[in-house]
Design goal:
This protein is α/β, with parallel strands linked by helices. It has 13 helices and 17 strands. Helix 11 crosses helix 13. The two termini are 27 Å apart. The structure holds NADP nicotinamide-adenine-dinucleotide phosphate. NADP nicotinamide-adenine-dinucleotide phosphate (NAP) binds next to loops.
């Protein structure tokens, strides 16, 4: 068997038995969690297919390691390799301070047009949580990744550019903006919104989910966030009439089986996600709301150490899976932190390439490892009667629990 490239034809991934998958091990604690994660992912694949399938990992450089070796934080070659091999995975990266690239993660998302940030949020029994019934949380957040206030369109207070813009807005639109203001621009496009919401609907159909909530602040920002909501309903009616039903036409009493498309204003969503989490299933939202929402929901099920994520362009098949936490530099090289976020991102990757049996193995391994109470420091300090193990020790334990 030879290693090969994942291809993408007519909207479908074609995955060989030995796909080459690029990885960035990441900065700080990245090398520790990458070593642990790749071991768990490889073992899950081996248990399922006894060598008939195997991932061929290929290291690509980004972050501090790239800077030390090439003088660049995000070499062009790395982006080329992610494009060439289509599906990749990365550990956390340091955001370079001062000058140059703002954030390597944001840059990667923008240059590869990875428009959907996908974050499943579910509870693993036994993980310490600040809420009483964390098992009621089972949501998948689809956050738009390329627009909104993240587009980088900002002008500094007092700059000549901002003065010109303020003058223009005053003369053309009669908008009175204080002269010492800074200004940021919030673009929300119909195409950008619809492709994100389409991805959420297609995911909900594929995974038999019950409902999709469009989260927005359309009561205040009518033409940006309000339009996102309207475009969502429009798309559902136009492209998915057999699979979805919109809120206004929903009739529970009639035994409606289609996926319900509803919406929620962001502030009330935060409240209800705490008080009635089981009413929410798939969430589709814009960039800033999505940023807040995914971290807030992750907190309900035990924090960022357990939260996986992916950045995907479904139209081109590109996907980069990632740990959602940062580099936790104070623990670098100590073999100490929790590798679950990257391991579960690896399980998402396996689902994405259609190797779901291995993904389920990994989830089972993590569930059992947590239940055994032999866990990394972050969980151990919050659990009664827990025994602290290292990052690699936790990976050993997960591997053991993945066997039948
Ligand atoms: P951070 O690295 O996420 O760490 C904050 C705290 O979260 C840690 O001190 C630790 O808490 C806990 N934590 C993080 N990862 C953990 C893990 N795997 N297991 C257990 N606990 C974990 O956030 P930061 O200190 O704000 O950022 C550090 C660097 O990471 C910055 O350069 C930032 O830009 C970058 N960053 C990268 C990404 C990314 O690549 N996706 C995301 C966020 C931040 P305790 O101290 O309580 O033990």
């Amino acid at each position: 068997m030879e290693s090969d490239i994942i291809s993408f034809l007519e909207g479908k991934l074609n995955v060989p038995d030995m796909p080459v998958i690029p990885f960035v091990e990441g900065d700080g604690t990245g090398p520790d969690i990458w070593k642990a994660s790749s071991r768990v992912i490889d073992r899950a694949v081996e248990i399922c297919w006894q060598g008939k399938r195997k991932i061929v990992w290929k290291e690509v450089l980004a972050g501090e390691k790239a800077f030390n070796m090439t003088g660049e934080w995000l070499p062009e070659k790395t982006i080329d390799e992610f494009r060439k091999y289509r599906v990749g995975i990365k550990g956390p990266l340091t955001t370079p301070v001062g000058g140059g690239i703002r954030s390597l993660n944001v840059t990667l998302r923008q240059v590869m047009d990875l428009y959907a940030c996908v974050r499943p949020v579910r509870y693993f029994k036994g993980v310490p949580s600040p809420v009483k019934e964390p098992h009621r949380v089972d949501m998948v957040v689809f956050r738009e990744n390329t627009e909104d206030v993240y587009a980088g369109l900002e002008l500094k207070s007092g700059s000549s550019e901002v003065k010109r813009l303020i003058d223009f807005l005053r003369s053309e639109y009669k908008w009175n903006i204080r002269p010492d203001s800074a200004i940021g621009i919030k673009p929300i496009s119909r195409d950008g919104s619809r492709r994100l919401i389409r991805a959420a609907i297609e995911y909900a159909i594929l995974h038999s989910r019950r409902n999709i909530t469009l989260v927005h602040k359309g009561n205040i920002q009518k033409f940006t966030e309000g339009a996102f909501r309207n475009w969502g309903y429009e798309l559902a009616k136009e492209s998915f009439p057999a699979e979805t039903v919109i809120w206004d036409e929903y009739d529970a009493k009639a035994g409606e089986k289609r996926i319900l498309i509803k919406d929620s204003i962001a502030d009330i969503f935060f409240q209800q996600a705490l008080t009635r989490p089981d009413e929410f299933d798939v969430i589709a939202t814009m960039n800033l709301n999505g940023d807040y929402i995914s971290d807030a929901l992750a907190a309900q099920v035990g924090g960022m150490g357990m939260a996986p994520g992916a950045n995907i362009n479904y139209q081109k098949g590109y996907a980069i899976f990632e740990a959602t936490h940062g580099t936790a530099p104070k623990y670098a090289g100590l073999d100490k932190v929790n590798p679950s976020s990257l391991i579960l991102s690896g399980a998402m990757l396996l689902d994405y390439i259609g190797w779901s049996d291995a993904a389920r193995r990994i989830e089972k391994g993590i569930e059992r490892a947590v239940a055994s109470k032999k866990v990394t420091y972050d969980l151990a300090r919050l659990m009664d009667g827990a025994h602290e193990v290292s990052c690699s020790g936790f990976a050993d334990s997960i591997c053991g629990f993945m066997e039948d």
